Every structure is written in structure tokens, then in C-alpha cells.
Amino acid sequence: MRVDVDLKNDEIILKVKENHHDNPEVYEMEQEAFQEDAFVAEQEDDGNADVPQKELRKKKKKALLEFRCKMEDAILGDYLLGESNYSSPQDLSKAKEELRNISLWGVPLLPSRAHEGTDMVLLKFLKAKDYKVSDAFEMLQRTLLWRRKFRADEVLHEKMNSDLENVMQMTGKDKQGRPVCYNAFGVLRDKRTYGPEFDTDEKCEDFLRRRIQCVEMDIQKLIFKPGGPDKIVQVMDLKNLPGQGTKRLLINKKLNILLQDHYPEIIHRNIIINAPFWYYASHACMAKFLTQRFKSKFIFARSGRATETLLKYITPENLPFQYGGLMRDNDQEFSSADNVLELSIKVNGSNRIQIPIANEGVTVVWDAMVVGKEVTYKEEFIPDDEGSYKILIQKEKKLGQGIRNSFYINEPGKIVVTINNSTLKKKKVFYRFKSKPTVPVYILCK
Q1: Of the four, 309, 364, 399, 419, which is 20 to 30 A from 230 by CA?
Q2: Of 167, 210, 171, which is closest to residue 189 (Cα–Cα)?
Q3: What's the order of all strands across the beta sheet hosting 362-371?
Q4: Which overall architecture, per CATH, does domain 155-314 show?
Q5: Is the fold of 155-314 the same as that of 339-445?
Q6: What are the structural domain ranges in the chain?
């Protein structure tokens, strides 16, 4: 199963201006940051491609206005979370005040508070329910009740098992600035460390709670306002995933249902890489319990093409080194702000990275990765002076994970990295470099 859809911006953002007089239900609405291609993409995503754009736009504006009014009435009327019995007028007054201040993901839900993120949160529930206001309202109600029972607002302050921190890590962002969460489940193969996590139902529930904790931590990095990233990308690395234990599969199924029911439109993409064969069958069974909209967020990378798939959504400088990117832990040389260049290598051909250096007394550092690997490379320094000798920095060898090297320049010239591709497939290379003034060690010794 593979859904290969890449929407650049699948959210239509509506900004609502408040008119606070005697009638809080009167709102003036205007559309912000609208692009034609984004609108067409959302039409197709909503299954409404045959509906005229003007009519669809009007429908969504009307739905948002109706949803806002319904939320205002439910909060001010004290029935958003169902009917409650209060023992005293003081308790009633306190409960009403708490309801007026109710929020979701840090965003106030009372429309008349005029918070810029309120509409964006409401639109997520509307979109999940195809802009049916009653269904979206019920979904939001169930979400708030579930969060109260699950104590979701408290989970952020709970201490996570240090071993599980190796499973779930928040690193980098995608091409549209959305935060990316990497889940490396292969570490669960160590039964001595992780086996006890699934011994009992209570421990399984705790593991599920830790997964929700990671989602809540990811949400803290979102910006619920026009132009800000309001979704997250999840990368699920299933390499060396332990066998299909019943409890693990049940946890996975339960998590996806929770994300679908209580975190609508929070997940932009679920990218599955290095999946074992049996996982496809279990995913197909689990998919029966998911909506078509949520299922469309899953992207399966074909065997051996994890890096190529990830690069469709994440730039090389933001892709971790272990997944074929340029981003390394605690990198002292480069950051995501450094410019990355690209070149291609033809089938059964070669190409060269050339780094010209006009000044002496500097150290040049270069970083490169080849999509698909299976190439050889060599590195050399070629001086501008024809009377000087070439210096072989690295003799030809097979490329491993990536290229990272440095060389001190004592005369003008250029660093040349020659990459040979003997395969029948075109290769793509991403690289970057920088130079920094350096005092030679022999001078320091003097």
C-alpha cells in the first residue's frame, strides 16, 4: 500500500475579525494567504474536485461561521462538556469561568476571545469531518472529554523513561517548516531493556502514554496562526523491528485511532521506512479501522529507497545523517543554515565537486552525500601554480555513509572530489563546504 501525494499547502486559512457589540455572533470573515494551486489541492484532497471553487469556498466560510457560533453558545451556555450538577452557586460560577478559559493545544476555544489560532484549530475538526458542523462539534466534544480522562495536559510534565528517549526523537523540519519526529523502533529488539515494557497491560498503556507524550511535545513546536507550521511529520523507522507481537500491534492500532479521533489534521504525513514484510499485512488489517483521510497520510518507502522518499519532504541539511542526510548530532562545522549545492552523475559516468580557494592559511571543510550510494570517490588538492604538485587527500574508495573531510591550504588552488558512478542509475549528490582561518600547528609549537 502506497499513497504518493505531496501537497505543498493543503490548508485554506480563514481569518475572522470580531465585532464585539451586543451580538457576538456577527463576524466579518476574510480569506488570508490563499493560493490557487493550494486550493485545487485541497479540493482534490476533500473529494470535491467537481464542485466549483466559488461554491466550495462559500461552503467552508459558512461552516466555519456556524461552528464558531455553536462553540460560543456551548461555552457560554455551559454545555460544551455535557450537563453538570453543581452543589453551590459558587461551584457553578467557577465551572463557567473555567469553561470560558478552555483551550486545546494552548489555543483558546472561545471565539469571542479573538485568538488568531482559534479558527485554525476549529478548521482542523471541520476538515476531518468534511465541513459538517455537527459532526465536527461532536468530535471536538469527544476530544475534550478524552483529554480530561487521559489527563493529556499533564502528560507534558511527566518524566519519560530514559530508554524510550532513544525510540522517539524530535529533529529538524520538513521543506515547509513543519517539525519532524523520528521513531526508531528497532531498538525495541533489545528484550533485556525494552521487553519489560510489554509484560503487562499496565506497561502497555504506559508505553502508549509515552507515545502520546511525544505527540504533545511535537505540538508545542507548532504555530497556530496564518503562515505558521500547524502540522507535524512523523518518520517511522521499522528497521530491525521485533516480530509481530500481539500487544505491540494492539498498541500501534490504538495509537493510530487516537491520533485520528483526537488529533485531527495534526499529522501531515506518516512516512514508513524499512518496514518488514509482515508489517504491510498488519497495516492493511489496521487500516480497516481508519478513515480514508487518515489513511492517505501514510507513505511507505520502497525497500532500499528510504533516503529518496525522505528527500521528497525533507531537505538534505535537515535530514539526519543515519538516514542519508547531512545533519549530524552536535555538528560543530555545519548547520541547517549553510548553503547546500546539488549535482548529478550520469549512468556509468563521473562528476566532480570543485571548491576553489584563493587565499592561503585557511582550512577547507566539505560535506557530501550521494543518494543511492554505490559509487566510488577520491579527493585531491590541485594548486593553481602549474609548478606545484597535486596532493592526493583520499585515494579512490567506495563511498560509505557520506563524505566529511578537511584540508589545510598553504597556496591558492582547489579541492576536487571526483565521484564515479558505475551503476545503471543516475545519481544525485548534495554537498556543502566552508573555509576558516587556521594557524598551523608547527607555528603554534614555535
Answers
A1: 309
A2: 167
A3: 341-345, 427-437, 362-371, 403-409
A4: 3-Layer(aba) Sandwich (3.40)
A5: no
A6: 13-150, 155-314, 339-445
Query: What's the pLDDT tens digit per position in 227-243?
Result: 889 999 999 998 887 76
Rounded to whole angstroms, the Cα distance separating 85 from 89 reads 11
> Cell digits for 58?
462559500
Interatomic CA distance for residues 350 and 344, integer angstroms: 9
Dihedral angle at the C-alpha atoms of 127, 130, 135, 140, nearest 10 degrees?
-10
DSSP label of 385: S
Q: What is the CATH number of domain 339-445?
A: 2.60.120.680
Q: What global pTM score does this model have?
A: 0.80
Q: Give percent helix, percent strand, percent coil of the chain, each to the nearest 5.
A: 40, 25, 35
AA letter at 50: D
Identify the segments of the chain with pLDDT beneath 70. 1-52, 84-87, 160-166, 187-199, 243-246, 440-446
The residues, ordered by sequence, that sit 6+ positions from 172 with a Cβ below 8 Å of its Cβ are 179, 180, 314, 318, 319, 320, 327, 336
Q: Which residues contact 403 (CB under 8 A, 6 or more apart)?
A: 366, 367, 368, 369, 377, 379, 417, 431
Distance (Å, whole) CA 294 – CA 259: 9
As given in the structure block, the three cell numbers for residue 413 are: 588552488
Do the Cβ atoms of 366 and 356 come closer than 8 Å? no
